[in-house]
Design goal:
The protein has about 280 residues and is an alpha+beta fold. The chain has a domain of about 110 residues. It is about 15% helix and about 35% strand. The longest helix has 16 residues. The radius of gyration is 23 Å and the shape is globular.
Length: about 280
């Protein structure tokens, strides 16, 4: 009996010692890595576990760290300093803060960003299946407050035990342009992009992207919408054009109920069709 107890105790101690490091320990490794690699101080602002939602082969985490604004020489266009923000992927306790993982055929990001709008896990399949990692960030701003908003989607490659960028897009933010991942409904898992035209009549181009069998996103639709600049419609361009977008994809026809935006603007009472687009009528 004593021999069994000794063996059990040794196995228990080995199991305890084999426990993975805590999130706090990984965060400290990231801070140390950034200090060594880029000679900056930083503070962790988000720690996202990737192991469970993606069922990864090895342990993966995403740690987002920010340099204090007061220690940055980079400004926002209005004279206010902005600290650099780094996305560090941690695999088997080893942080990679190079941003090289954010790379597609046509777009890449290898440096810091200065604003973060979204860092989360979204799902391309029903019942929260087919997870993707979404990031939405911005570089330095200009005097008008505009900046290049970059959206990335990353998928997990189980055979290589790696995350790979499968979609990227850069748009401004001052002219109602938007890159939106669709999280429910008939277009679940697809991405819609709108951006203004450069020539009269001044409206918006609308593009739809869908994940191809290769895993990367490919454009399946592009058209010039009829939503105009400053038309008084408080709906976002993507929402005002949604009936036409769905019609062109064979998912909506005249007489069907109008698609309801995921977030109805404040003061919007009902939706009507006007000049070929959905229009928000104010509450009475």
């Amino acid at each position: 009996m004593k021999f069994v107890v000794v063996i059990t105790s040794v196995l228990l101690a080995a199991t305890i010692n084999a426990q993975p490091p805590s999130d706090a320990a990984l965060d400290r490794k990231v801070i140390s890595k950034l200090s060594t690699q880029y000679r900056i101080h930083s503070k962790v602002i988000q720690h996202l576990d990737l192991t469970e939602p993606f069922q990864t082969v090895s342990r993966w985490s995403l740690v987002v760290a920010k340099q204090p604004d007061s220690e940055s020489s980079v400004g926002d266009g209005l004279g206010n300093p902005m600290g650099a923000i780094y996305f560090c992927f941690v695999q088997r306790e080893e942080p990679d803060c190079s941003h090289e993982i954010f790379r597609t055929n046509d777009e890449s990001s290898t440096g810091p960003v200065y604003q973060v709008f979204a860092t989360d896990v979204v799902f391309a399949g029903p019942e929260k299946t087919l997870p993707l990692l979404r990031t939405k960030t911005c570089g330095t701003g200009g005097a008008t407050g505009n900046c290049g908003v970059t959206t990335f989607l990353l998928a997990y490659d189980r055979s290589a035990d790696r995350f790979r960028a499968v979609f990227s897009n850069v748009q401004g933010r001052n002219n109602n342009e938007e890159t939106r991942y669709i999280e429910s409904g008939a277009l679940l898992g697809q991405v819609i992009v709108d951006y203004p035209t450069e020539k009269a009549p001044f409206t918006y181009f609308v593009e739809v992207y869908k994940q191809a069998p290769s895993g990367k996103y490919a454009q399946i639709l592009k058209y010039r919408g009829t939503t105009g600049y400053g038309d008084g419609n408080i709906l976002a361009v993507i929402d005002s054009q949604m009936p036409e977008t769905l019609r062109r994809l064979g998912l909506w026809k005249d007489g069907d109920p109008l698609p309801v935006p995921p977030r109805m603007p404040r003061g919007c009472g009902s939706l009507v069709m006007r000049k070929g687009v959905a229009w928000c009528q104010p509450r009475r």
